[in-house]
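quick q for whoever's on today - can somebody do inverse folding on this one?? i tried earlier but teh output was garbage lol. tokens:
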């Protein structure tokens, strides 16, 4: 594809090698197993560990800490390739990657030295403990409480809709230290599942994306020592928001991966299947639908890659990331459905990945800010972007 070549040309040779490694890993280890993970309702821990062994969880992690120290754009492209095989696996792995990088960046040296090597090896899976049973996009409304005690903080509350919660051993947990302070009272802690007070909930049975390992946990008088404070009150909320633009950009790129895989499947099928004496693809009604899908794929990639470059350059990516996620999730959901329609009932068969991609496109429409939240984010900016024209 022209656009993937365009972005890859900006990457270094080392980064292009990482993207190629991700593509091969997905083809050899993810694609052959993805459907079975879904049927078995199983989290693919052994394949997550195998991906860690190839360094796919250390792309952005600093070299001094055992990572590769590469760009955000490199990570985005690598996970776009993995998502072609399975969005659920890619999303689980990238959340572990993010937990590794955040813990390494913000953790205290002693704790990082003790736990990070296990995370890099995939022996300790990480997750972000942000969403709660009654709190999703309204991050400032967190109910999990952190109370100051001697030598640390006592945490009480519940988290839900957490990627990797099914197996995670370390969670980057956000909790409210002072409700009266609103977002300024939120702090961030490294919570270890092996410590007393951590109670894991059964994973959610998620249609189409069970490999994400989504679920929750409860903290009951869990004591996080002072060394476990990753971000103090006043900084944690801003830090979390700073990472959301990256998440929206890579979710958009992962949607592009799913849409490309769906298009490739549909085009191959409609070239080979014949009706009324000609290939299905020769029928204008089918062909034009796939043309629309291809055009939307190119547009979604442009938006996602623009946001990625802005993030690497330290630019303002708030709106570009919101545009990318809104457009990519909306159009991927619609266009994968068109790819299925082009294949007729065969598009729903389990030996094709399209139905699984369709379910995961719907999951992507909620993760890291729903489509409605993207509309609100863009809508708030309308007067500044368009209201000053004369």
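ok took a stab at it. sequence:
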């Amino acid at each position: 594809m022209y656009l993937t070549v365009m972005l890859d040309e900006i990457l270094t040779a080392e980064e292009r090698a990482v993207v190629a490694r991700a593509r091969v890993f997905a083809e050899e280890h993810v694609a052959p197993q993805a459907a079975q993970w879904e049927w078995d309702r199983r989290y693919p821990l052994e394949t997550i560990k195998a991906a860690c062994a190839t360094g796919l969880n250390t792309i952005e992690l600093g070299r001094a800490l055992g990572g590769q120290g590469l760009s955000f754009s490199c990570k985005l492209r690598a996970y776009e390739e993995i998502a072609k095989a399975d969005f659920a696996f890619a999303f689980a792995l990238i959340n572990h990657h993010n937990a590794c990088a955040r813990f390494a960046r913000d953790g205290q040296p002693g704790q990082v030295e003790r736990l990070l090597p296990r995370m890099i090896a995939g022996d300790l899976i990480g997750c972000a403990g942000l969403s709660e049973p009654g709190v999703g996009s309204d991050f400032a409304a967190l109910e999990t409480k952190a109370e100051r005690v001697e030598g640390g903080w006592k945490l009480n509350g519940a988290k839900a809709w957490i990627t990797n919660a099914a197996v995670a051993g370390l969670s980057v947990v956000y909790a409210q230290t002072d409700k009266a302070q609103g977002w300024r009272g939120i702090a961030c802690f490294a919570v270890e599942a092996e410590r007393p007070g951590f109670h894991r909930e059964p994973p959610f049975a998620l249609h189409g994306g069970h490999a994400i390992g989504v679920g929750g946990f409860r903290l009951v008088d869990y004591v996080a020592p002072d060394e476990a404070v990753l971000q103090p009150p006043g900084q944690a909320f801003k830090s979390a928001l700073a990472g959301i633009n990256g998440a929206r950009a890579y979710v958009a790129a992962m949607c592009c991966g799913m849409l490309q895989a769906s298009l490739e499947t549909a085009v191959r099928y409609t070239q080979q299947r014949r009706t009324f004496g000609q290939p299905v693809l020769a029928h204008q009604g089918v062909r034009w639908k796939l043309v629309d899908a291809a055009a939307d794929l190119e547009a979604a990639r442009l938006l996602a890659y623009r946001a990625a470059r802005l993030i690497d350059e330290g630019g303002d990516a708030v709106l570009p990331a919101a545009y990318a996620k809104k457009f990519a999730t909306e159009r991927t959901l619609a266009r994968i459905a068109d790819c299925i329609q082009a294949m007729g009932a065969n598009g729903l068969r389990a030996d094709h990945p399209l139905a699984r991609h369709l379910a995961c496109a719907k999951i992507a429409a909620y993760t890291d800010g729903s489509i409605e939240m993207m509309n609100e984010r863009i809508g708030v900016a309308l007067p500044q972007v368009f209201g000053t024209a004369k």
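fwiw The mean pLDDT is 92. also The CA atoms of residues 153 and 224 lie 5 Å apart. so keep that in mind when u check it
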